[in-house]
Amino acid sequence: MPELLSSADWQAFRLTLALAGVTVAGLLLLGTPLAWWLACSRARWKVAVEAVVALPLVLPPTVLGFYLLVALGPHGPIGGALEALGGAPLAFTFAGLVVSSMVYSLPFVVQPLQNAFAAIGRAPLEAAATQGAGPVDRFLTVAVPLARRGFLTATTLGFAHTLGEFGVVLMVGGNIPGETQVVSIAIFEHVETLEYARAHALSAMLLLFSFALLLAVYALNRRFQAVGL
Amino acid sequence: MSGALAVRGLALSRPGFRLAADIDAPAGGLTVVAGASGSGKTTLLRCLAGLEAAEAGRVTVGGEAWQDGAERLFRPPHRRRVGYVAQEAGLLPQRTVRGNLAYARRRRGRGGTDLEALARRLGIGHLLGKRPHQLSGGERQRVAIARALAGQPALLLLDEPTSALDPANAENVLALIGELRDTARMPVLWVSHDLERALRLADRLLYLADGRVAAQGPPQELLTRLDLGLATAPTAEALLDGRVVEHRPGEGLARVAVDGGELWLPEDGRHAAGSAVRVAVPAREVALARSPVAGTSLLNQLPVRATATAEVDGTHTLVRLAAGQAPLLARITRRSAAELGVAAGWRGVALVKSAGLRA
Keyword Cell membrane on this protein (chain B) (predicted)? Predict the structure, then answer.
């Protein structure tokens, strides 16, 4: 095995995990209030927001990646603004990958959360309100615990989907070892250079890891169901 | 009045529906909210809880304003000391019964409700360690009522708490509401799908029609008002409050003293001698005669005076009677009414079959 996975491969693997972890954390932070709003709001333009959230599901990663590259680059609105503030543009950086992955995996986190929040129904929330629980209190003590399966699904899907990301990373991050080279890109490079054994080793590792992750989640979900949650 | 609910000019508009309500409900009284489906019963309760934002009007409980359209005051539900029990219990599934009660007490309970004592009083003491999914529907609703009380509400709202329950479970919850009527110190408003059962317990009746309060007051009065839909319905009945005088177990009968006389009615052993009972007297079980009748199977003959009459469905006359001070209804044919000359001021005897009475 050591000869099959070079230190660069391990680096790519660690980077991939870090990217998926940071992306999911960021998405849970931003996606939870968004999903809660989508589940509760009766605003007419809510459907437009829902459509935007779902866009990454249907767009080719190259389209998404292209616009992200333009936006994050030195002449784009985000990259340009950062540069003006004395920072560096985000294209071809780890931070840029995180931002891109968050966009790319947004529906995989927001949609399960939105469905889970909507499934709670108004009875438990209204009951809590009439017991003196304010909006934040209700959200934390009623909505979040009742939507825990949604959080589990959202975290897993967001994480797994980011692990498997390729097109967007290629467009926005390029292939810089230790900075933006993730496993899927490393595999692609091994194949390009006809290093099939190394490509095989990395692929098998990602395959097993993803399977183990999903298996654990489905098993956990079943247990929740069994105890009536 | 301290603790009373007062609603003035409460107004809410929804497509195809308008609610307009003025209500007074005393503290410590059970007010049953009745009306056809779609008349706004649930909407009214939701407005009082603050779950619907009425556009105008003033709501005060014990003199404390919960909302006032004129002053742009609107307290959201969590700022109202309200207890609200809906059709669905809405218990938190991840918490035990004790946890659910504690949730309400922590947010509302001023001075701290003794949860153990409350649970024992409501017959759920043995359930404190269980989770909601381990309870029956009736137990869940009892817990929901206990939870509403754990917050020591100034107003208790019960919105069809028994409608999703099977008869045995519903009976259980009805018994609890009966106990509440005698012990609660706050106004209690109860929307029930089973009006007949609810009226057996009601101190007051609030009758809604098309989103308006058509009438409110003692149920004995409203049930016999000829201008309301309650009296003209084929199932109309009057309520007589009385006291059990004696039991005749051998005959399966009980003698009950009511205003203006005595009634014999079927006895199922639920009411001890000396206890107060409320007897439902269906309008179609009451016949009229000019004078007492001899040689009849009818056990009950009450001297009455007609106070008003109304024609219903072409063939019948509805007569509002006074037995002593207590109002009573008789639904007789137009022909009989004409032959007896029944009109306001007419005096005679109401003949009531014992088999038609329920306590």
Answer: yes
Interface test with A, best of B46, B101, B105, B107 (most A CBs within 10 A): B107
Which residues sit opposite B8 in a β-bridge? Answer: B58
**Best of A42, A120, A126, A130 to disrupt the B interface by mutation (most B CBs within 10 Å)?**
A130
User: Which residues 200-239 on chain B approach chain A with CB closer than 8 angstroms?
Assistant: none
In the predicted structure, residue A175 carries a pLDDT above the cut 90: no
ipTM confidence score: 0.81
Instruction: Please give the Cα distance from B53 to B120 (Å, whole number).
Output: 36
Q: What is the pLDDT of residue B1?
A: 44
Residue B92 touches partner A, C-beta closer than 8 Å: yes
Chain B residue nearest residue A124, CA to CA: B90
Structural tokens at position A52: 């935007």
Residues of A in contact with B133 (CB under 8 A): 228
Q: Where would I find the H helices in chain B? A: 41-49, 97-108, 115-121, 137-150, 167-183, 195-199, 219-222, 229-232, 334-340
Q: What is the pTM of this model?
A: 0.83
Assess if CATH 3.90.1170.50 describes domain B232-356: no
CATH fold for the domain made of B5-231: Rossmann fold (3.40.50)
Q: What percentage of chain B carries pLDDT values higher than 70?
A: 99
Average pLDDT over residues B100-122: 84
pLDDT in tens, B325-359: 999 999 999 999 999 999 999 999 999 998 888 87
A133: which chain B residues are within 8 Å (Cβ-Cβ)? 78, 103, 107
Contact between B239 and B224 under an 8 Å Cβ cutoff? The reply is no
pLDDT at B200 over 60: yes
What architecture does CATH give domain A7-226?
A: Orthogonal Bundle (1.10)
CA distance B271 to B261: 19
Instruction: Please check whether residue B19 touches A, CB under 8 A.
Output: no
Partners of B90 on chain A (C-beta within 8 Å) are: 123-128
